[in-house]
């Protein structure tokens, strides 16, 4: 039974890339070998480009460092963050696959309550391949899952569901907390495994974590920009949050769904809360204005592609958030640069008006 979750032919083997941002040797891949080895990896090396990153033998991968990013994007490389895990979105841009799964290098294989290893990638793929229910909440979690269905009172006209753009996984052991919560609860660990997946309702934002995340790149890829963070920027650790808020507004507009819940990974180490506080300080302060901005953001009907939606959002960021801090003018510029770079590298996904 031990290997029962590993299908003889891995799901979407030729249609999915695994993107990993890192500054260190990728020994953690040994634990994931049974699940990841059949897939192509895109490794985005952050920090010093002269450092040699070792990847275990037997993996099919391409590795990009800062020099590669500058060479490929030229002046547009300014939109890719440096010394922050936000650099991972470069991997999203250069991927040529329909789906992307991204994971951090301190995330290990978790076990379900029976003690069996969880194939997180397989669960993400299942989430992405079945519909979401963003327009009406099903109280029995995911109605498309085996052993579940739509409950009494659920409109039949909505049971076909909507395409799933994003699958957001969770974590055992170290929760994804901000610095103040880390400081208050330094020893808290998540030991609770909740066997559920649910669709985040339309009109509801959520805090997206990039350490265990999959998405339909063809559907929502251009919105998966992790912002300008880290070195030279007044904020860090809000890269995935920014991408999540933009993505949710666009998914709501275009009628797509986002799922959260399973799969779990084992998050092995908590980052330093004092270092995190320094990175997050502005974000904690600014988010009280950012969240109402995204809650009230609307997109016009002529925004029919993700690119058009994202360009419109960048205009609204410039018009409404520049008063919060000049950084948001810079971020709005970077959002446009990101779309230009995306369309250059992915001409087939560019829809002309």
From TrEMBL:
Any one cellular-component term (Gene Ontology): cytosol
Top-rank taxon: Eukaryota
Catalysed reactions listed for this entry: UDP-beta-L-arabinofuranose = UDP-beta-L-arabinopyranose
Chief subcellular location: Golgi
GO molecular function terms attached to this record: UDP-arabinopyranose mutase activity
Enzyme class: isomerase
Record family assignment: Belongs to the RGP family.
The protein's name: UDP-arabinopyranose mutase
Species per Swiss-Prot/TrEMBL record: Aquilegia coerulea
């Amino acid at each position: 039974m031990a290997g029962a979750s590993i299908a003889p032919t891995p799901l979407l083997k030729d249609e999915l890339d695994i993107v990993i941002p890192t500054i260190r040797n990728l020994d953690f891949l040994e634990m994931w070998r049974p699940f990841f080895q059949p897939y192509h990896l895109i490794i985005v090396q952050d920090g010093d480009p002269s450092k040699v990153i070792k990847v275990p033998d037997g993996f099919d991968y391409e590795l990009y460092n800062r020099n590669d990013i500058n060479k490929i994007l030229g002046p547009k490389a300014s939109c890719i963050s440096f010394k922050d895990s936000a650099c991972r979105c470069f991997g999203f841009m250069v991927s040529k696959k329909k789906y992307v799964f991204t994971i951090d290098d301190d995330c290990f294989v978790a076990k379900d309550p029976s003690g069996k290893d969880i194939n997180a990638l397989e669960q993400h793929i299942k989430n992405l391949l079945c519909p979401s229910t963003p327009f009406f909440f099903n109280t029995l979690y995911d109605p498309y899952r085996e052993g579940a269905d739509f409950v009494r009172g659920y409109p039949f006209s909505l049971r076909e569901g909507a395409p799933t753009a994003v699958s957001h996984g969770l974590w055992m052991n170290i929760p994804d907390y901000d610095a103040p919560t880390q400081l208050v609860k330094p020893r808290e660990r998540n030991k609770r495994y909740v066997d559920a997946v649910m669709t985040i309702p339309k009109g509801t934002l959520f805090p997206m974590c990039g350490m265990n995340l999959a998405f339909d790149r063809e559907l929502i890829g251009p919105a998966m920009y992790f912002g300008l963070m880290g070195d030279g920027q007044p904020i860090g650790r809000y890269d995935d949050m920014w991408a999540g808020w933009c993505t949710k507004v666009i998914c709501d507009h275009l009628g797509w769904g986002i799922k959260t819940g399973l799969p779990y990974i084992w998050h092995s180490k908590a980052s330093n809360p004092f270092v995190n506080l320094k990175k997050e300080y502005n974000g904690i302060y600014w988010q009280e204005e950012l969240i109402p901005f995204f809650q009230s953001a609307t997109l016009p009907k002529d925004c029919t592609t993700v690119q058009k939606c994202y360009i419109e959002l960048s205009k609204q960021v410039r018009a409404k958030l520049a008063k919060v801090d000049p950084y948001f003018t810079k971020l709005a510029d970077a959002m446009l640069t990101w779309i230009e770079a995306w369309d250059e590298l992915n001409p087939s996904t560019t829809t002309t008006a």
